[in-house]
Write a structure and sequence with these properties.
The chain is an alpha/beta fold. It folds into two domains: 146 residues, Response regulator (Rossmann fold, 3-Layer(aba) Sandwich), CATH 3.40.50; 147 residues, Rossmann fold, CATH 3.40.50. Helix content is 44%, strand content 17%. α10 links the parallel β9 and β10. α2 packs parallel to α11.
Length: 335
């Protein structure tokens, strides 16, 4: 009887141990699975004016099989036009040891991301020249931990000034608003100063990097009685684009902008690269890096398509007759 009792107890102990081990198997299996990769996405813009851009970025990720929340996580950080915040935002994401760091929304964000790490892969999206800015060694062979795309919108200010001159003929003075804290601001100013005499225009260049300075620039445009205004490419202006458009409409001031979204939201004309396509490409590169590609082996992407948009509803409200030559060249006319 004693031997039988001991045999039963040993059998029960074996069953308990076996059950405990079986319960632990799923935990062990999960522990062996790799953690979900995390993309740190930092931008000089704001989320409110970037919904379509984020959609394009996530589309690019999805083209290579990555879906946010399913097999990749994204940590977002926004400077909302305040470039001084970008270094701290980049440092915070680096401390979190993100798998890939995306510096979007212009040159300041790209530079802050690259300056924050030499080990985490960086994918940037900027308007200027990354070689001149020291972010990469060359377009074809970036050579370090960073690559991405350029939209070259900063170099298009003379082209925009020429389009504005065609739309508003005559010899009245033009105005231009630049952000002095935007890294390419000096080259933008130089290009505009060189372009204005070629079209026979006096050009009043004003600077604004915050809301108070923007109000002062608006007042100066009215005081100097400019007949049209160029809003230079800059992410801070993108975060305030509806306010700028409203000012131009209120004072019946023709204006040209960099991106299509301005014209969609009531701006008169815009000329620049497709920003949604640029963000899609950033998503594609981030996905390729998650799959093992090295930034040094991914050439810096450049735009192949530029959009010229005319909002005819706004033109009619301003009493402008858009020349047929401009209408014929437009990629899109908003009625």
């Amino acid at each position: 009887m004693i031997l039988g009792f001991r045999a039963v107890m040993r059998r029960r102990k074996f069953i308990v141990l076996l059950g405990g081990a079986a319960a632990a198997w799923p935990l062990a299996a999960r522990a062996e699975q790799p953690a979900m990769p995390v993309i740190g996405f930092m931008s000089a813009r704001s989320p409110e004016d970037s919904a379509e851009l984020l959609k394009a970025f996530l589309q690019g990720l999805g083209e290579d099989g990555f879906v946010e929340g399913r097999n990749v996580a994204v940590e977002y950080r926004w400077a909302r036009g305040d470039y001084s915040q970008l270094p701290a935002l980049a440092a915070e994401l680096v401390r979190q040891r993100v798998t890939v760091l995306v510096g979007a929304g212009g040159d300041a964000s790209a530079r802050a991301a690259v300056a924050a790490t030499t080990t985490i892969p960086v994918v940037f999206n900027m308007g200027g020249d990354p070689v001149k800015g020291g972010l990469v060694q060359s377009f074809n062979q970036p050579g370090g931990n960073a690559t991405g795309g350029v939209i070259l919108t900063d170099a298009l200010e003379p082209k925009r000034l020429g389009l504005l001159n065609e739309l508003v003929p005559g010899d009245g003075p033009f105005g231009a608003i630049l952000n002095p804290k935007f890294p390419p601001a000096a080259s933008q100013m130089h290009d505009l100063e060189q372009a204005a005499p070629k079209i026979g225009r006096k050009l009043l260049i004003l600077q604004a990097s915050n809301d108070a300075e923007l109000d002062a620039a608006f007042a100066a445009l009215l005081r100097e009685q400019v007949v049209a205004v160029l809003v230079a490419s800059d992410p801070y202006f993108d975060t305030r684009h509806k306010r700028i458009i409203a000012f131009a409409a209120q004072h019946r001031l023709p204006a040209i902008y960099q991106f299509r979204q301005y014209a969609l939201d009531g701006g008169l004309i815009s000329y620049g690269p497709s920003l949604t396509e640029a963000y899609r490409q950033v998503g594609v590169y981030a996905a390729r890096i998650l799959k093992g590609a090295k930034p040094a082996d991914l050439p810096v992407m450049q735009p192949t398509k530029f959009d010229f948009i005319i909002n005819m509803k706004t033109a009619k409200a301003l009493g402008l007759n858009v020349p047929p030559t401009l209408l014929a060249r437009a990629d899109e006319v908003i009625e």
